[in-house]
Design goal:
single chain, alpha+beta, six-stranded mixed sheet, Heat Shock Protein 90, 18 strands, eight-stranded mixed sheet, Helicase, Ruva Protein, domain 3
């Protein structure tokens, strides 16, 4: 049978096939961009997005965060995720849009440090659950003690990127958290007067290991010492771990709780205005069109940070423009001259109170709590700038006690913990600027072996945290940081300082070990030396024990003086 000849398209037929593509449709077909490219990774990504939202909400409301994460297996390849927090709650009108509309949020346009940035994460998790199981996202939220909670179930209309409400009722619900009893069991849960709970059922896979939900939550505690966390997983049967061995999690069916290390919230970051040196030409044009100022001088001084009124006048003079000109009516050619003048003007760096670093003391404390370390140190660099965006680098280094930490040995690569705005980054380590910076340091100078072009080898943990108003991730899934030279340079300096401190510790430890070796060697031969002295000096037999005691006291005194 002959094959039909396809009709040639015309401009008219092609025009009839054109239609708008919603952002939901795009990410539905390209969900790998958001971190939902495998069932195993999907579960981790969903938990990550929910926990990030809870932490941001609690901190912004001035509430010490308490979060519970429960994962329940409902089928062979289906899991239900429940994440509950004691945050301020969400008002009824905003619930559908926050949880079932992509690119909707309050953080995208604000220049201040926050975990979420794009308004995609939690709604994308709900969309993935809807795609793989058909189930709606369930939200319970209560904003105060005197008001009822809202129980809302939503799905995304992917063609329009709008929420569809399937259930909307009021009920008397309060978020409750398990409370450990002195005997190790759990007593009556304690309820909070406000908070939010989100439930998503999805096709997923639970596997233990370095890229698991368990590991993500443990690392969350290192970067967020003010967090109190509860975790439980309920499995239908045994799963396999990353090495393919049958394994049942230690926490299966029972709550495990981690108490907070710090009882004070981090210093809240302050929103800042854009810095002129980080604004590109097209953005400058848009800002001048949208400004509320009536003069060009006013627009420069009021809409940008670090631009005073005299500095704005100097920029206008350099560009040959009237400071009193209407900024909305400036021609494109003149804006290009203004852009050049801005970049030629020396300005102060942007303010850094928009950042909230963890701090050296809490980093060292978090690492010491995570591993049994014989040496632990942390360094926080002064804030600096890339593309006009302030950022700050912090590094912690812990050298483990031999044989006391599972997974840390002298023959394996060091364990690298990567964080951006207090969020653990587990995937795509090889593509991250953090790994590149660590690999570029000559660790042999600091006492650790290092294969060429790789991370060092040894029983150590290196933690790197980057705090920024806008973290330059390599993709929407927020798993690796782009290779900006400024960022790599700051990480390198910070890591080198930790390396120098480690070298001092290892050198001191080696000297002490050598002294102890010599001391034990001498002590071993003290009885023989005493016996020889007895024979040479012709001492009575009972004097031999006295000579041994005198020699040992002399050795001990010499050791204390050293």
């Amino acid at each position: 049978m002959s094959r039909a000849t396809p009709q040639t398209a015309t401009a008219e037929t092609m025009s009839r096939q054109q239609r708008e593509i919603s952002v939901s449709e795009f990410f539905l077909k390209n969900r790998h961009l958001l971190g939902f490219d495998s069932p195993r990774k999907a579960l981790l990504t969903a938990v990550k997005e929910a926990v990030d939202n809870s932490l941001d909400a609690c901190e912004e409301a001035g509430i010490l965060p308490e979060i519970s994460v429960e994962i329940t297996q409902t089928g062979e390849k289906r899991f239900r995720m429940d994440v509950t927090d004691n945050g301020p709650g969400v008002v009824r009108q905003q619930v559908p849009r926050i949880f079932a509309k992509l690119l909707y949020g309050s953080k995208f346009h604000r220049l201040r440090m926050s975990r979420g940035q794009q308004g995609i994460g939690i709604s994308a998790a709900g969309m993935y659950g809807q795609l793989t199981t058909g189930a709606a996202t369930r939200i319970l939220s209560r904003i105060s003690k005197g008001k009822m909670a809202h129980h809302i179930e939503v799905q995304i209309d992917t063609r329009k990127n709008t929420p569809t409400i399937l259930k909307d009722v009021e009920l008397d619900w309060r978020p409750a958290f398990p409370r450990p009893a002195p005997d190790g069991a759990f007593g009556i849960p304690e309820a909070s007067p406000h908070g939010t709970s989100v439930t998503i059922e999805m096709e997923a896979q639970y596997i233990r290991g370095k890229l698991s939900v368990d590991e993500f939550l443990r690392q969350c505690l290192v970067a967020n010492p003010h967090l109190q966390l509860h975790y439980r997983i309920n499995l239908l049967n045994k799963e396999v771990d990353a090495e393919g061995q049958a394994a049942t999690p230690l926490v299966e069916g029972q709550w495990i709780s981690w108490m907070r290390l710090a009882h004070q919230l981090p210093v809240p970051p302050v929103e800042i205005k854009p810095h002129p040196h980080g604004v590109e030409l097209g953005m400058l044009m848009q800002m001048l069109r949208d400004t509320e100022s009536r003069t060009l001088r006013g627009a420069l001084s009021e809409d940008f940070s670090r631009v005073s009124s005299p500095t704005a006048l100097d920029i206008c003079t350099r560009a040959g423009l009237d400071p009193k000109a209407n900024p909305r009516r400036i021609a494109q050619r003149d804006i290009e001259g203004l852009f050049k003048a801005v970049n030629e003007t020396k300005l102060m760096r942007p303010p850094t109170d928009c950042l909230s670093p963890i701090g050296e003391e809490l980093i060292a404390g978090g690492l010491a709590k995570e591993i049994q370390a014989e040496f632990c140190t942390a360094v926080t660099r002064d804030p600096t700038v890339y593309r006009g965006n302030p950022f700050q680098v912090e590094v912690g280094l812990a050298y483990a006690k031999a044989g006391e930490n599972e997974g840390l040995s002298g023959d394996d690569p060091v364990r690298v913990l990567r964080f951006a705005n207090r969020v653990p980054l587990l995937y795509m380590g090889g593509a991250c600027a953090i790994t590149k910076a660590i690999s570029g340091v000559n660790w042999k100078n600091y006492g650790l072996a290092q294969p060429r072009g790789s991370v060092p080898v040894g029983p150590a943990v290196i933690m790197v945290h980057i705090a920024s108003v806008w973290v330059p991730f390599t993709s929407e899934s927020k798993e690796a940081i782009a290779h900006y030279p400024e960022i790599i340079r700051e990480i390198t300096f910070c890591v080198q300082e930790c390396g120098r401190r480690l070298a001092v510790h290892l050198s001191r430890r080696n000297r002490e070990n050598e002294v102890e070796r010599k001391r034990s060697y001498i002590e071993k031969y003290i009885p023989h030396l005493a016996h020889g002295l007895k024979d040479i000096l012709d001492l009575p037999g009972k004097e031999e024990d006295r000579v041994v005691q005198i020699l040992r006291k002399m050795l001990e005194r010499s050791h204390l003086e050293t």
